[in-house]
Structures are given as structure tokens and as C-alpha cells.
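Re: your question from the hallway

Yes, I did run it. Sequences:
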Amino acid sequence: MKNKYSIFSLIKNAFSYHENWEKAWKDPKPKKEYDVVIIGGGGHGLATAYYLAKKHNMKNIAVVEKGWIGGGNTGRNTTIIRSNYLWDASAGLYDHALKLWEGLSQELNYNVMFSQRGVMNLAHNLQDVRDLKRRTHANRLNGIDAVYLNTEEVKKFCPIINTSPDIRYPVLGGTLQKRAGTARHDAVAWGYARGADEMGVDIIQNCEVKGIKRNGDAVDGIETTKGFIKTNKIGVVAAGHSSVIANMAGLKLPLESKPLQALVSEPVKPIIDTVVMSNAVHAYVSQSDKGELVIGAGTDDYISYSQKGSHDIVEGTLNAILELYPIFSRMRMLRQWGGIVDICPDASPIISKTSIKGLYFNCGWGTGGFKATPGSGDLFAHTIANDEPHKLNAAFNLNRFVSGDLVDEHGAAAVAH
Amino acid sequence: MFLINCPFCGEREQSEFKAGGEAHIVRPKQPTELSDDQWAEYLFMRKNIKGIQFERWNHIHGCRKWFNMVRDTSNDEIKAVYKMGEKPPIK
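Structure:
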């Protein structure tokens, strides 16, 4: 049993200069065999392991991660959490995640710094206005909080936005989801890792998967840089590298992996207390608790695993940011980075069984997976444990690309993908 | 960002080009004969290779012509550029 984090443990550890904190997770050597192996130690993978142990009573679980946990897209995203998606299937999926976020710090006894500061999506042309109003109605019918704001209300909610009608893409209105917000991305991975480790999950870092061994049409285990691990159930949560793992098993997925960039500015005093996203000009911005502006750019259009994006993408985003927020014109950007996102043709994720028995994929989250972390883990754990999808992820099966039942969130969601 | 040697215009910045995805996916000769699985394979399933990839590009802010490229997607290094209809210069 791990010591509970509390104000008292904080005080107690202050006396020893915080040098004697118990390790949040162990560093085990892989066993010969597991009941389930999760490939990918990001937020989604660790959450999957956590819920497998917690809700499905499975104990012999490993998470294998080629680098360090939370070192991929979990640590590279802009931490935005919202559930204002258009279609019923997406609304169910993302709002399930949002509800889990609301109790996550207590559930994990780990402060994930979930902050419901609201997410505002701006409209810049008449079609945007119609689309956003339609989405607001759709959200409310699905029980998701959403309000439509006119230009004055946008200005009132976030005074630093330039709402002049003279700018190139004037602000004609926007939507607001007040339950939406941000969380601390690293803490999510660490909190789930700590919780999973406590329930006996082996988190094996620096362990790259090199092959998937099959026995006929079922999986038999994985070859890794730390040797062969036998297992009958493999859950792949490898984000940008999902296709690479799929190829090892002789599968093809409907994914393209592309660089997505983000950047942060130097830290400044509090200036923007919400998240503002803008679909048409592709700019979104929030402010971290450290004071940095966190800015998300778009994807490049070519396939790449290089974790580097093109400069013109960043330039385009910053142009839009400066027109909408002239106050930021003297800000200096501190860091810029790229992550590799796996994008589905319909911009919706895949949480699904495959044609190979015991092989499950949770992928295709594209540019917006962070917000779904708890829900994705919960539903993927259900799918693996029961060998059947939960009703909330039934629509997100791999077969939809054959049947044609796509969940088309391209541009229909709050931001373009 | 990288430089691309357009087979028609010469070396230009990548921002002048549009990527067109995986190359050499042959359009079905008899679409009416295709099963749903075959349609899914043709429309959606992609190799999405980490490593040497054969792909299509269009010089949209230049000659607007399509051409093929061989590129290492793990580091964006371009191995070869060749015209539509030509055989890839490397395997």
C-alpha cells in the first residue's frame, strides 16, 4: 500500500528536504508471461492498465514503453479538455472522459491540476456561425453544456480578443463550454502509473517492441529489446507509431502519421484565464499555471515520424494569434516542438478488436487524444477484458471503414483537424 | 521543412508543395466488382511506413504538376524524385 499524498505527508517530507519520498512506481524486469500486455506507456496506455486492474480485476498486466512514460504525445500536447463534439457517438465518448476528469485527482490521489476554465470556440464567418450554433444545439440535446456567444459576449468573456470588425477574419461569435478546460499532462501519466503500479501492474520502460508473435490467427507474445514476453492479449496504444506495430502483426490500419506542433512563450503574469480555439484561422491559446502561453499549431500534410514540423505551419498560427491578440505582439516564444499524431480518415479514434484474436488497438486519436485519456483507458480496458466493446466505444470499431459507418468529425468538431 | 527538387521546376521550398499521400495505389479496374473489404482497402488502409515511403506530391504553388517522391519518413530525407508513370528509381 502506498502512502497517501496529503498536506500531512507534504509537511512530514519537508523535514527530510523531500529526499525520502517513496518511489511512485517500481522499475521491474519483465516477467516471462502476462495476461495482458499494453504497448505504449502514455496516458491512454497507463489508464488502460489502471482500469484493467481496478475494474476488471486483472492483476498480471504489463505496460511496455520504448522510452519513458508520458514522454510521447502525452507530454507534447496543449492539454485542452472538452467534450463539445457534434455527433452522438463522439459526444458519448468525450463526455464520458470529461466526467472521469472531474473526479480524477481524488480517484488517483494525485493532483492532475484539472482546471475547468472553459473552452471558447470562435466563429469567423457566416458558415462558422451556423456550424457552431448547430453544434451548440446538438451538444445540449446530448446533455453537454454549451452556450452560443455573440461578439460582445465573447469580448466580455475574454477581453484581450480583438473583436474589431476590421480585422481579416473578424470574430462573429463563439461557443463556450464551461466544464471544459485544461489539466497537467505529465501528472495524468504519473498519477495513472502510480495507481496502476500499486495494483501490481508492471511498468517496463526503455523496452521497445520489435515484433508480434502469432500462433495462427491469435497472438502469442511480443519480441522486445528486453526479450520475449508471452501473452494472449495485447492492447496497442502507440499513437503515432500504431501503424508500425500493426505492420508487425501483418495488419494495415486506416491511419496516416503526421507532425503536429505546439509552442510556449516566456512566462508572464495571468492574462488569459480560459482556452480560446479558432477553427477557421487555426490558432488556439491558453495560459499554463507557470504563466507561459500554450499555443497549438496545425498538422503538416505529409507523413513523417521525425517529430519535427514545418516552420510555415508555426508562422501561420502565430499570424492568426497576433491578429486576434495584438497584446501578444512583443511576446517571445520559448520552446517549440512536434509530436507524431495518427489521423483517421474520419478524424475519430479507433478503440477496437481486430481480425487477429487477442490483438486490440486504441489509436487514431489524431490531434485531440489528451482530452479523452481517462475515458479511452476505461473503455479500452472494458474492450480487452470482455473481448467486446463497451456501448460507448462500439461505434469506434475498425470495421466502420468497411461498413461505411464513419463518425465524421472532420471540421464538425470544434476545431479543424 | 525541407527542400524538394521538383522534376519540372527544380529545387523549391517544401511549403510550395502539397503532399498527396501514398503513391502507386492503383484505382480498381472494375469498381462494380469490388467487395466492401476491397473498397476499404483501396480507400482507407495505408502502409503509413516509418522508413522509405513512395508518395505523391503536387507543386501547387509552382507548376501545379503531380510527381512521385521516395522519402525516408523517419528523418524526412528525400531519396529520389520521379515523374508520374515512371518506375521508382530505387526499390
